[in-house]
Structure prediction request, 125 residues.
Amino acid sequence: MAHADDTRASALQAFERDAELLVVHQLDLVAQIEAQLRAVHHAMRRIERLRGTRLRVGAELSNGERHTMLTGLSAEVAELDKHLSEEHQCCRLMQDTITQMQERLAALKQTATRLDRLRDADSAS
Prediction:
């Protein structure tokens, strides 16, 4: 009987530990999603600035103004490329976190099954 109690206590501790880690992963995922939303919003602002210059109506630009405008657009496109790379990396991190959560959930299921079997064994005794 003492061995069964120790086994049950050990299984319960494993279950609680896995559940706690699942919560930590979930909080990590929320933080990653928030970071992704900020990155998308920032990229949208940059894209809007690019669109704004393209849709501009007004006098023809001089060669100097055109050169300045193209240099600025090139810098904006480079920054946009950098942000898109950051967004891509953030998505990879979210996928990794979800994979870890799935692994933790599988461990929780195994522990729950083990606890169920221990309970059934106690009931039969």
